[in-house]
Amino acid sequence: MPAPLVKESAVDVLVIGAGPAGLMAANALGRAGVNVRIIDKRPKKVAAGQADGIQPRIVEVFHSYGLGERLLREGCRLHMAAFYNPGPDGGIELTSRTRNISAATARFPFAMTLNQGAIESIFLDSMQEMDIDVDRPIVPSYLEISSSEVELKNPQSHAVKVLVLQHLGSEQEVEETEIVKAKYVIGADGAHSWVRKQFAITMDGEHTDYVWGVVDIIPDTDFPDIRNRCAIHSNNGSCMIIPREGDLVRLYLQLTDENLKMVTNPVTGKPDISLCNTEQLMEVAKKTFYPYRIDADGEIGWWTLYIIGQRVASQFSVDERVFIAGDACHTHSPKAGQGMNASMNDTHNLAWKLSHVLRGWADPSLLKTYEYERRRYAQDLINFDKIFARLFSNKPKTKDNVNGVTHEEFVEAFSKAGGFTSGIGIHYNESVLVNPTYQSLATKLIVGERMPPQPIIRVADSWPFELQDLLPADTRFKVLFFTGDYLEPVQREKVLALAESMSQPESFLQKFTPKGARSSDVFDLITIAASRKEEITYNDFPKILRPHWSRIYTDDIDFSGKFGGKAYASFGIDPQGAIIVVRPDQYVGMISPLDKVSELDDYFSSFMTRSVNL
Amino acid sequence: MPAPLVKESAVDVLVIGAGPAGLMAANALGRAGVNVRIIDKRPKKVAAGQADGIQPRIVEVFHSYGLGERLLREGCRLHMAAFYNPGPDGGIELTSRTRNISAATARFPFAMTLNQGAIESIFLDSMQEMDIDVDRPIVPSYLEISSSEVELKNPQSHAVKVLVLQHLGSEQEVEETEIVKAKYVIGADGAHSWVRKQFAITMDGEHTDYVWGVVDIIPDTDFPDIRNRCAIHSNNGSCMIIPREGDLVRLYLQLTDENLKMVTNPVTGKPDISLCNTEQLMEVAKKTFYPYRIDADGEIGWWTLYIIGQRVASQFSVDERVFIAGDACHTHSPKAGQGMNASMNDTHNLAWKLSHVLRGWADPSLLKTYEYERRRYAQDLINFDKIFARLFSNKPKTKDNVNGVTHEEFVEAFSKAGGFTSGIGIHYNESVLVNPTYQSLATKLIVGERMPPQPIIRVADSWPFELQDLLPADTRFKVLFFTGDYLEPVQREKVLALAESMSQPESFLQKFTPKGARSSDVFDLITIAASRKEEITYNDFPKILRPHWSRIYTDDIDFSGKFGGKAYASFGIDPQGAIIVVRPDQYVGMISPLDKVSELDDYFSSFMTRSVNL
Known about the structure:
The structure is a homodimer of 614-residue chains. Chain A has 614 residues and is of the alpha+beta class. Helix content of chain A is 27%, strand content 27%. The first copy, chain A, folds into three domains: 5-77 and 111-203 and 310-386, FAD/NAD(P)-binding domain (3-Layer(bba) Sandwich); 207-308 and 395-421, 2-Layer Sandwich (D-Amino Acid Oxidase, Chain A, domain 2); 439-605, 3-Layer(aba) Sandwich (Glutaredoxin), CATH 3.40.30. In chain A, the strands form five sheets. In chain A, strands 1, 2, 8, 9, 10, 11, 19 and 20 form an eight-stranded mixed beta sheet that branches. In chain A, strands 6-5-14-15-16-12-18-21 form an eight-stranded mixed beta sheet, sandwiched between helices. In chain A, strands 23-22-26-25-24-27-28 form a seven-stranded mixed beta sheet, covered by helices on one side. In chain A, helix 10 (368-393) runs antiparallel to helix 11 (407-416). The first copy, chain A, is globular, with a radius of gyration of 26 Å. The model of chain A has no long low-confidence stretch (mean pLDDT 92). Chains A and B meet through strand 6 of A and strand 6 of B. Chains A, B: Residues 426-610 form the Phenol hydroxylase-like C-terminal dimerisation domain.
């Protein structure tokens, strides 16, 4: 073996692991103009199988990065859920059908499936446009955070050193050693996270006794709900059907009794994938589906076996310099389709904060909110998962099994969980970023939750826009001025006064705009009036609110009569108006009265730093 | 000059001219798998300016080729129309604002603008995927149609010979002469069409006296409707404002009085572009906009001068072997934004017919319907244009000009023309392709007009689909079975009988499916029931109606409560059901009772040929 070469390099953010969490991070940071590098130990990206559940909120998030159209085009949509239970003769029968997603404000009111490889390709293609590739195969071997307080305090210092080994070319024996000096490191390196282990961060929680087989098939079947999301409780075990792209269907099959015995290693007492095969899984499927017929059409491309584990990392960050994200900090059952979503939402939450700190716009303490917000969410997720996994893995209630799960119990849990499983109801608690003081000014717009979709009309040209499309993940805070009816003199006066305050040097708009930059680089001001589109005129509004003609909107119905006119009502904002601050990740950060710009000054002062040179 | 080389080549369809009409033809034929070649005499494609109006129907057409998303993403949308007239002090003032597009069934209820170069790029990129490039610069120099009756009768004969000259490389002197033998030729070579001249086809109609300047600017203005489509009638001439991509705006400025004199060549008495410049046009704009201020921000990229001519070619085809399309067969004023749309719709109409004839599926006489349908439309367009151009070019009615055009007169014409200018109301008269016998079975679905949009629900997975998306431009006839409520025994019986008839050898489905092909290669059968989505099951339907699980739909409201449930009502189909045949270009071809498959047999027999080997 030749002597290893040692080289040194520096980067602002090093992302370890190119799964969905890592790629979301690298893409988001790249878009924000951050100097980012992403490495992965695998020589190639994953092809098929693995995670595939896409929840409504993550579709909104993809949209905010300009990646939603492709996701919608490529993915399979799950609108209907069907429930099967044992009939009088023991075989399964349809109990009921209902909508799959119950979250009322979901912009895309369906769940989706798309294999992890396709999701990763969406990010990889987006990153390609920014000339960011995944460096692979690169294996990290040593990591160290500086112990110098001076260094740790300065976000511009390369306070983390990571030693990595790169296998060169096809000759796996030739290794190159490199020291990567990074300002920040994100460990998105999966359930067996190497980064997590460097700091001996524990995973709190436990394994369950539930063992499941998963198999992707093109079904040959007379089962009528094979293209719906199905929960089958049979006397031979439970099954979840998840339709996928094209004609593909994923079956989650519970292994019980002799099937469970068959896959259990007699020495370890643990399930052993080498004792399982597709014939066995399809036998289980046939018994579960009886009296319906089910076979696999053609070869089975992907299958696996797993035990549900429900655990959360005890910390998500070390010194706010090294972060872990995705499977590295939470594992749970795959059947609720949460894993990939939770992982991508972790780094969606982290990326913009890192960008702000690295630009010197925000105080490094902002980074504490990552663990605060995402660990709490992960715990909620695990708690939900425990209930759901138990209900689903337990036998149905029958004459012979009076302690089993009733259909009503299951469907109620299924529906109640809608806000949660859809990702729509995710709530971040009060912090510097989440200030619910004036919650009452927008009663239906929950501070700490994501901004719901709502069509509004652009004043200059009456073009209806989806409000969420005006809130892209571009690292800017969006300040929405709900002015009320601008044709009312009282409201107009308020707006003029507001414009006057915002032009003062102590206003957030001036104070937190770096020298040499335009305020629109940091803050996107969006005005939403409540006047008839035929009557108001965009250039009647104060100049500070319209750096461009496109910034003035109104809450009115569009010409098709289908969209708009419900923003104030849906958000619970009364005619006196209000100001809504939306975070760069689309979460509502705070609400203020229309005539109290000082509230915005206070909010931004709590985490932003006074203007620095760009 | 070196001696010219002569080579020979053969192609099924030769398209001459790579503007919008030619590119639509080449792209559509390429998608249909036809051996097509497209040539253009210009060394490069047009960059900016020229045609840019995109009407609602053409957006639907682009969607049918899978190109609509990009068009919608890149184009500017015009929702609002504003009308200005002289106020009491002589300057213009806002008279009213109204919706720009009034066609009730438009799927995309707005006009659009996108420059011709961008439109062409959409086609070119689509063609690239099929390895079809525009051969350029290639100049046709001689064209001859065979005089052999035997050859002319056989659609597979290369009955047209075209001699073309290609300039090789950068050395313009080196020419290569080529004889292209084509089965069919499409002359999409513009207003001065060389192809048209080879057959001395006359253009019937006349020039008007109206002279207009056109200029693309980024405006610096206090005019409040600069981002709306505006019709300004001022005492200093009329102006049409057409907002465009980004901040660009196109102004159509009427030249009158001394401005008209200034651009008139004293010798010829005709307008002369060399006598005009941007300063003059901006002066006209300033007078027209008074009391509003208007200037161009930065340099003016494109401008021109034109006289309205309104003419239609006396024939659109020669021996159904050579066709002319687009500007080659109709010219009219650009302000109604019709030109590019009419041109693309010409070849959209022609391409599928050529595909069917070339495959041996249809009798060559089908090609007669191209001139029949499109020439009539062009005449209607010119008639409309005459009225619109007169109303718009004439002075407004004032105290001093009592014979002028009133605002009411203009707005009425504007609104009435909505169906026409949107492209939605285009109607093809009765022919082998348009059979209105059973019009009363679907009272609101006009035979000879395009199939309106309508959301329907896919039964297998409750996925809501836009019906138009199920009618792509894939050259197949779509047969829509509106079965009524399939849970009703009477309707179910009809459907079973229908399935039985269609399996008979004399049924259209068997008779016109070429040997060795599947019937779904020629006909796409789509079933649309009227049952609740929670209650019906896709695999209850006869197998012949579902070669794939995705072919069964129902008219029900989706889970969002926003889409669907109105198909039968909107189309005027009663619970007894009906069968609707939709042509490959999305026009309704015929309607039949649900229990009279023989009507379909007769319809298809009138132009299709009995199955041949593929």
